[in-house]
What we know:
- The complex is a heterodimer of chains A (81) and B (96).
- Helix content of chain A is 42%, strand content 0%.
- Chain A is built from four helices and no strands.
- In chain A, 19% of the residues are buried.
- Chain B has 96 residues and is of the alpha+beta class.
- Chain B has a four-stranded antiparallel β-sheet, covered by helices on one side.
- In chain B, β2 and β3 form a beta hairpin.
- In chain B, α1 runs antiparallel to α2 (71-83).
- Classes of the chains: A mainly alpha (81), B alpha+beta (96).
- Chain A binds chain B through residues 29-30, 67, 69-76, 80-81, and chain B through 8, 10, 45, 48, 50-54, 60, 62, 89-90, 92, 94.
Amino acid sequence: MAERKEYDRRKQPRKKPSKLLEGNVDINYKNVELLQNFITERKKIAPRRMTGNSASQQRIISREIKKARHMALLPYTVNHK
Amino acid sequence: MTNNYEILFIVPKSIDASQYSELSNKITTTIKDKFNSELSKFEKWAERKLAYTINNHSDGTYYIIETKCNAECINEIEKILSFEKASVLRFLIDKK
Lengths: 81, 96
């Protein structure tokens, strides 16, 4: 049983396509609607395993989210006060 | 050496028109007259609710500046923006 389960898991496709379209999407701290796809319910930066970003996309996105947070375009947390 | 910079800053909604025009004049004269640099954009970007309150302000007006200037000029503008605590809530200088 256990062996069978492991085999099945290995066969499953693990990679999800990124929410970013291929090509030159403008990833910019002012593009708040786009960045909102890459934060979790709790307003954390979503990990790559959730979004399917490539490493270089993830670096750019996390940098732009941090800029947007500084400018109060995105929240740092759900309970701001 | 000159670079392209983008500056975004937040002004509280409650600010006087005269106070804002004083600030914008200061910035434009610094870029254009003092450093003879190119000011390609200076406009209102958006008026929106802030994601969190800053100094008890929950709304703000965002202004955007695009300029091609040298580092000295940017240092001067950074000084202006950081001294104007009453009329500038936050600012971000982004090198393109």
